[in-house]
Amino acid sequence: MRQHISRRNLLQTLALTGAAAGICLRTASPASAATGSALTVPDLLDATADSDGTKAFTLSMQTGTTEILSGISSATCGFNQAFLGPVIKVSQGDTVRMDITNNLDDVSTVHWHGAHIPPAVDGGPQNTIEAGATFSPSFEINQAACTLWFHPHALGTTSEQVASGLASMIIVDDDTDGAAALPSDYGTDQFPLILQSLPISTAGVIRYTTADELATSTSFPLLVNGANVGVAGTPTLDVDASRIRLHLLNASIADIITITRTDGASITQVATDAALLAAPLSITSLRLVGGERAEICLDVTSGADVTLQATVTAGGARGGSGTSSILTVTSTATSAADDLPSSLNTFTALDVSSPDATRTIALSNSGNTMLINGVAGTTMDAMEAAEIMTTLGATEVWTITNATGLTHSFHLHDVPFQVQSINGAAPTGAYAQWKDTILISPQSTNVIAMQFTDYADNTYGYMLHCHNTVHEDEGMMAMLMVMTD
User: Fold this and answer.
1) Per-residue confidence (pLDDT) for residue 316, from 0 to 100
2) Based on C-alpha coordinates, what's the Rg of the chain?
């Protein structure tokens, strides 16, 4: 029998041995805050083509060390590298296979957050990958342009493994006129920004709970694509384009991040986490709860630099706070970009006049035990006993009540949803269109609607949960079965 080594012990051991040996596989190079350093742009992961046209991507879940705090090596994990991973870019209609090898010492999974795929390959707690094993799910990219991400989703270890660095992005493209009007040359005018408010001790040990591990020695540096902006300074990006597109992901385990421009000017949002917006939306701030994504466009020309900043607020019992500049964009372009089209996508509201089902999803807690409908989803048996069951094609309306004094990040697997109301008021801005992750305020009531399309399975299920991964591990997760009949 394989000896089990807890990830907590592994991280602490690697942190100590890495610090002693001075090992660092991926570092954030120190630089002054005034000059910053060039934005780290994750590599695109190359695919190999099978004879049937399937695009195969190879991912290795592995451990390593990374210098997050200046001069201190931390034990980390990543996909194909020591921390975070490459970006995967695909198009609607592609058939892909993900060849994932788990080189950790713990069981894990890889979940394709926001992907509309069958539950047997969704990467939830039923799709476990044992230490040393390989899992090769295959599925069709069955959705239009959007920003997805991938991360572990095993029972009880999600927060630990995500905080350690097992997270990266999937960019989905399509051939519509709306998508074609947006910058799409990766690394030239299209860039990912993976943002993390990361709990870490002064000794460099990454934290992942709200209990005793978040001691007074814990700080919450803000990372942009794996680089600590407090150490490396504001990341800089020099381009020759007059417009760039940024795919934003809040990969923090708990904290909320709000994006603004330092000059107070407007930002153009072009997509939520689930889809392109019907039309470009001019905003002055963009709030992202843990797991939430968005796409924005910035118009830049020579002599008119643009700097983005992020304000972090705690999304749990403890967390980060404060405002940091996260990107300064400089362009050599001398002429302004053409106006974006007035229409990017077609948004059709769901007909909820006679839904097939209405449900209440009650979020509550008893101390550090988090509950959905009175059940702590910490085991498969508990979730199966309280599973929500629906049928293919059903349109449903859910009322999500939050009886806790905590902020939650609600995420539904399988299909996106439409917010109907927040404390009785109609949603505004991007929250009025397709979403798959939303902020749930303390003592609030949120109503959402969705339709279950394309995929059903009487054995494998999807998850609905809080994407504050600490709360998820503490039980705020339930199982959803979309049945064939």
Assistant:
1) 74
2) 21
